[in-house]
Amino acid sequence: MLIRDATLEDAAALCSIYNHYITRTTITFEEQPLQTEAFAERIRGVRASYPWLVAEKGGVVLGYAYARAWQSRSAYRHTAESSVYLHPQAPRRQGTGEQLYRSLLLQLASRKIHRVIAAIAVPNESSIALHHKLGFDEAGYFHEVGYKFRRWIDVLYMELPLDSALRRNDNL
Q: What does the pLDDT average to over 53-73?
């Protein structure tokens, strides 16, 4: 498996993956599918300041991970929010998401990001387990903050202090 930086040429494949989650799950709170051009703009915007990585095998995109600013105020500049999405047909429990995430976290650490925040719509036991495996701790729980598919959705916030994770070197 190859993990590399995303390019604008990846936009169609990545948009297709994300649209699956928009239209079929509550993992993202977006409700309308995106067009490839809009997704390419997101890649462009993120890549200006943060990493966006793609996992592929044999030329087939298996998933992607990226980070972005957690909040817009300048004092938050050392904190990022992370996301990872796998192709719905990608083999599960093969380590793709974990490898993508580890690569993302290492790149964030090299950019002097101090803390990474993950917002997880629940239930999503596989995502929660992955975050725990990587050293994230639960940091907050918000009840019924999203509404999609005619039901209320809770969100679990998890956090990882990158500097201590690197010092421990047991998760990255």
A: 96
Count of C-beta atoms within a 10 Å radius of residue 130: 18
Neighbours of 74 (CB within 10 A): 6
pTM for the full model?
0.93
What pLDDT score was predicted for residue 168? Answer: 65
Task: Give Dmax (Cα) for the chain.
Answer: 44
- pLDDT value at 171 more than 60: no
User: Could you tell me if 64 and 101 are in contact, meaning their C-beta atoms sit under 8 angstroms apart?
Assistant: no
**Which pLDDT score is estimated for 92?**
75
What are the angstrom distances between the C-alpha of 130 and each of 18, 50, 79, 126, 127?
19, 21, 20, 6, 5
pLDDT at 90: 81
CA distances from 39 to 10, 34, 140, 153, 171 (A): 10, 7, 29, 25, 31
Q: Is the dihedral of CA 119, 156, 18, 104 positive or negative?
A: positive
Contact 171, 139 (CB under 8 A): no
